[in-house]
Specification:
The complex is a heterodimer of chains A (503) and B (269). Chain A is 17% helix and 40% strand. Chain A is an alpha+beta fold and 503 residues long. Chain A has a six-stranded mixed sheet, with helices on both faces. Chain A has a five-stranded antiparallel sheet with strand order 15-14-13-16-22. In chain A, α2 crosses α3, α2 packs parallel to α4 and α3 packs across α4. Chain B has 269 residues and is mainly alpha-helical. Chain B has one domain: MetI-like (MetI-like fold, Orthogonal Bundle). In chain B, 82% of the residues lie in helices and 0% in strands. In chain B, α2 crosses α11, α5 crosses α6 and α6 crosses α8. Classes of the chains: A alpha+beta (503), B mainly alpha (269). Chains A and B meet through β6 and α2 of A and α7 and α8 of B.
Chain lengths: 503, 269
């Protein structure tokens, strides 16, 4: 299908970037259409800036290809690429004035001019732009960013917003095919940022060139973009229009990162019937199997409050916050919290009914249902897996077996087995792992890299030093980046012998 | 009461300051004073005269040595500034380990006793060429000055916004153009102070100079040192005048620098 898309200006094919052992970008595939405003969106450290820098040419991918208009530019240096960048902290040259900053690229540029000599033959000459041409172009660029007459000013006398505009003028004056913007509004205050968002969008329409924009601000991305690429952990989570990303998030990460959301664990009861919060709802999403465990997203503004007896769910209001345009209401259904946005005011303690229309329930495939690791048995009959070592019950590998005093396994038939170094598959349910502050008490240790609230519990991902991930559910609240130990009861570690074809 | 006590305090600290300054400057003032005395030996009486100054400018030998010294300082400072700046940029853009190693290596000649460096150089040249030449002298001064250029340039590179170089590349500059149009202007103040430091180091260096210079070549410091040591009395009074001139030039340079920097500070306010 992707083959049919014409006018791809930039295409990344299987692009990977690693620094020594750390992979920051993992096999990214994406294309940018000519003239579109595309935004790379994600939390800090997700690889969005690295991706942009590979398009600019400041970083070389360690694998894969970057194509510009179908040509391989993977190893082309930045000065040979028809792209210009607006840097996060502007990177204006402090020793040059405004004019000299904007003219920097023009003065370096060479154009081919055609002349006719006395004999009437034409010949071509590579020449720098004339002073008048440069002055003309600089003037025009400064007009576009609304800073006419600033030519003689020194950079240090400009405000942050003005510096930002000069940085944009310096980039667009070179008439690049693509303008790269690396969190350009990050250093501005809120009001200025909102103004610049609209101005950038207008500028994009006026110039007609491709904009590739990097931000961690989801609102900024939704406001400005034609296409949003949501990234996390060096991987693309979803590519789509702002409405697609908002209304049809592909997974819990996207749903949680973009906008406010209620995320619940749910089960498909039948086709287009999904059960969560103890009730079964109609929904409109196909493609799930019966009894499949899924995640459900409902946006707070899509929840209707009705009289208690008219609601599918009965809830009690536990907090109300006035937000200007709406009230943000937190209600409790049983043990599960639900966030609601409504223009109607409710009182704390009030009983309400809740209805959710079928088209407002968005069902997503679960990425994780169980933790799976490859493990091996140690001399002490413990298990090594997932960058740690845990106590476990090895007798479950052979029915009716037991261990003798020397640690050998005696099978039901009386065979004596030495299990040291035997490789097994390990499965642990997400409910069976607990975290502890005393990291040394855990069988493995790691940092919390993700937490998502699911109404009555949090889903955490803990990553160990050697990049093994544990996914677990917990009712307790921790913080991202907390360093924790992981405790798994021996009887909750499910072991199966590796079949020969697994190896 | 309090005012009185304060006044006494101020008086005491003023007197203390005056004594310290006097102790520092007394020898130099004495020298200035003596340079205008017609007496051959200081304290022998004599009258006020410009005799030594006149004889100084008439002495081809001393004028030649003065030229040697200045020329050597300019050559050594220029070369070590180029070398040191290139080195600083190289160190700054190399990976962390190499950078730490090279910066450490650069510290050694700075903290090392000069006599050790001088002796090592002398032995090296003896081993390589068996004689000392103007070349060995310049190399000696490069060894002396280059580490200081590195020390004054590297912090400027660290202060520089790293995106500036990338921005230049992004706007179409080749790495060389980016270096000369963006990086060098950003670190110019460090390069200039490295150059000035090298000039002063080279101008008054005695130890390395005397170990690496050719036998018949003299700079001001070796000449003065030998004149005093060998008591070739004919030249001694000339040196008084010469030292006075050097001192005056230094005073002028320092005053100009202070005035300029205080003016700049006022402007930036």
């Amino acid at each position: 299908m992707e083959e049919q898309v014409k006018n791809k200006i930039i295409e990344l094919i299987d692009v990977t970037k690693a620094y020594k052992d750390t992979v920051v970008i993992e096999n990214i595939n994406l294309y940018v259409k000519k003239g579109e405003f595309i935004t790379f969106l994600g939390p800090s450290g997700c690889g969005k800036t690295t991706t942009l820098r590979m398009i600019a040419g400041f970083e070389m991918p360690t694998g894969g290809k970057v194509l510009l208009n179908g040509e391989d530019i993977t190893h082309l240096p930045p000065n040979k690429r028809p792209v210009n960048t607006v840097f996060q902290r502007y990177a204006l040259f402090p020793h040059l004035n405004v004019f000299e900053n904007v003219a920097f690229g023009l003065k370096l540029k060479k154009v081919t001019n055609t002349y006719r000599n006395e004999a009437g033959d034409t010949y071509q000459k590579k020449e720098h732009l004339s002073k008048a041409e440069i002055a003309q172009k600089v003037k025009k660029a400064l007009e576009i960013v609304d800073l006419e007459g600033f030519e003689k000013r020194s950079i240090s006398t400009l405000s942050g917003g003005q510096q930002q505009r000069i940085a944009i003028a310096r980039a667009i004056v070179n008439e690049p095919e693509i303008l790269l913007l690396d969190e350009p509004l990050g250093a501005l205050d809120l009001k200025m940022r909102k103004e610049m968002q609209l101005e950038l969008k207008a500028m994009h329409e006026k110039l007609g060139i491709t904009f590739i924009y990097v931000t961690h601000d989801q609102e900024e991305a939704l406001t400005m973009s034609d296409t949003i690429v949501v990234m996390a952990d060096g991987v693309i989570q979803q590519i789509g229009t702002p409405t697609d990303i908002y209304n049809e998030p592909k997974n819990v990460f996207v749903a949680d990162f973009i906008g406010e959301s209620n995320i619940f664990n749910a089960t498909m009861i039948a086709n287009r019937r999904v059960k969560f919060c103890g009730k079964t709802f109609d929904c409109v999403d196909d493609g799930f199997e019966k009894d499949e465990l899924v995640d459900v997203v409902v946006r707070p503004e899509d929840i209707q409050m009705v009289a208690p007896e008219q609601g599918m769910l009965q809830a009690e209001v536990i907090s109300v916050v006035f937000k200007g345009i709406h009230y943000q209401i937190l209600a409790k259904v049983g043990k599960t919290e639900i966030e609601i946005q409504s223009t109607k005011q409710k009182a704390v303690g009030e009983k309400i009914g809740i209805n959710i229309a079928p088209e407002e329930i968005h069902v997503m495939k679960k990425e994780f249902t169980v933790n799976r690791f490859d493990g091996s048995i140690t001399k002490r009959n413990t298990m090594e897996f997932g960058d740690g070592e845990f106590e476990c019950d090895v007798t479950q590998l052979y029915p009716n077996s037991h261990l003798d005093e020397d640690g050998y396994l005696i099978t039901a038939k009386g065979e004596k087995l030495d299990l040291t170094d035997v490789e097994v598959n390990v499965e642990i349910g997400m409910n069976n792992i607990t975290m502890t502050d005393k990291s040394e008490d855990g069988g493995a240790q790691g940092n919390i890299i993700s937490m998502i609230y699911k109404g009555d519990h949090y889903r955490y991902i803990v990553r160990t030093e050697n990049e093994e991930d544990y996914v677990l559910d917990s009712e307790d609240m921790w913080n991202e980046n907390d360093y924790v130990g992981l405790i798994i009861p021996a009887n909750k570690i499910k072991l199966t012998l590796k079949k020969p074809e697994d190896k | 009461m309090v005012n009185k006590r304060q006044a006494i305090k101020n008086g005491v600290s003023g007197v203390y300051l005056a004594i310290i300054l006097l102790l520092i400057y007394a020898p130099i003032l004495l020298l200035l004073f003596a340079s205008f005395s017609s007496a051959r030996i200081i304290g022998e009486g004599g009258t006020f005269s410009f005799e030594w100054y006149i004889r100084l400018f008439q002495s081809e030998r001393v004028m030649g040595i003065l030229l040697n010294t200045v020329l050597l300082a300019v050559i050594a400072a220029t070369l070590s500034t180029v070398l040191g700046t290139m080195g600083a940029i190289g160190i700054f853009y190399s990976n962390k380990r190499t950078s730490a190693l090279l910066q450490g290596a650069n510290q050694i000649p700075v903290v090392n006793a000069e006599i050790v460096t001088a002796l090592a150089l002398a032995i090296l040249f003896a081993a390589v060429t068996l004689q000392r030449t103007y070349f060995s002298l310049v190399v000696g001064h490069l060894v002396l000055c280059t580490p200081f250029v590195l020390i004054s340039v590297i912090p400027k590179l660290k202060q520089m916004d790293n995106n500036l170089y990338e921005a230049a590349l992004d706007l179409g500059a080749s790495p060389t153009q980016a270096l000369f149009r963006v990086v060098i202007p950003q670190i110019a103040s460090g390069i200039v102070s490295g150059f000035m430091l090298s000039i002063t180091l080279s101008l008054d260096d005695y130890i390395i100079t005397s170990f690496t210079k050719p036998a018949t070549f003299d700079t001001l410091s070796t000449y003065v040192y030998n004149a005093v040591k060998n008591e070739s009395k004919s030249d001694l009074p000339l040196i008084r005048a010469l030292s006075a001139i050097v001192f005056l030039i230094m005073i002028i340079v320092v005053v100009v620098l202070i005035v300029r920097s205080s003016r700049k500070e006022e402007q930036s306010r």
